[in-house]
Fold tRNA-specific 2-thiouridylase MnmA.
Amino acid sequence: MSKHGRVLVAMSGGVDSSVAAIMLHEEGYEVVGITMKTWDYASSGGSTKETGCCSLDSINDARALAVNFGFPHFILDIRNEFGDAVIDNFVDEYIAGRTPNPCVLCNTHIKWEALMKRADVLDCEFIATGHYAKVRQHDNGRYVVSKGFDESKDQSYVLWGVSQENLARTRFPLGGFSKKEIREMAYQMGQKELASKSESYEICFVPNNDYRSFLRHRRPELDTEIGPGNFILSDGTVIGQHIGYPYFTIGQRKGLGIALGKPMYVIEIMPESNTVVLGEEHELERSQTEVGSVNLMKYASLPSDGFEAVTKIRYKDPGALSKLQLENGNMLVNFEHAVKGIAPGQSAVFYEGDDVVGGGFIRKV
């Protein structure tokens, strides 16, 4: 009988999840490793060597580490579920004129659900991942995610959608450490090659981070069905043509294919007329947004007269003070000071201190 119970650890083959597995093993948990095969590089239009968490090399690295430390390891093929829920949504969101947030969908609807189902089959009380975040039970009995110690690596933003039931069985061993400390741990554990392993900051299924080519590969009919459209200014003045609205995102400045003698940004996308609105940086400012698909985490409900929180509108956003008002399942967010680049489709995550109050997908601004 193990000291702390049996835990299923999601292992990508990278340094974070590998160290998480070793830490739990050394703490006395009965560790079971699992690597999820979520996609095929070739099916995404990749032409170079397959890399990242789903490559054969990464799967082999995860398995070798498990064998070395004496715990079992399994490979779980979830390519169909991942494709339906994450990749199809990614493409559909761009076609709808929004900017998708695939990591949130993957965590909420794919990884956690897949891990929990397999944990039950393997009699594991807990699951664990290498996310830089923390989870605890609040005084009110609810489970809450909070920021990791290393704010530069904090991943609480992408975890707002995880259910209470799943959080109750989740462990984040890396939450109290910095990335530098984790690499040093790997080195001290005798995993020198792992300690220096590079990491990718790109969307895992988009080769070379080129989402335009990815969209064309997934939907070859896009260019013929949508085609070129107009760039306009906020007053309606036509200033040029673009290659098609799905290839642009709110806040984009580079790659517009048009020069106006001063920096211009995408401030609005109008899919119904295949129009992209450009403006100067200050025109990106908005003081309000509406958020849907809301999941409350720290509290079961919010006060009817509103709730003050810091709202992050993108992963690396420092956040802005705001007042939240929940109405008919949607969250109305009023910012104390205008913020730039609110993009429909992205996540808005609400914080009270380091704790995630909840989050949802930005519907409109």
In short: The radius of gyration is 22 Å.
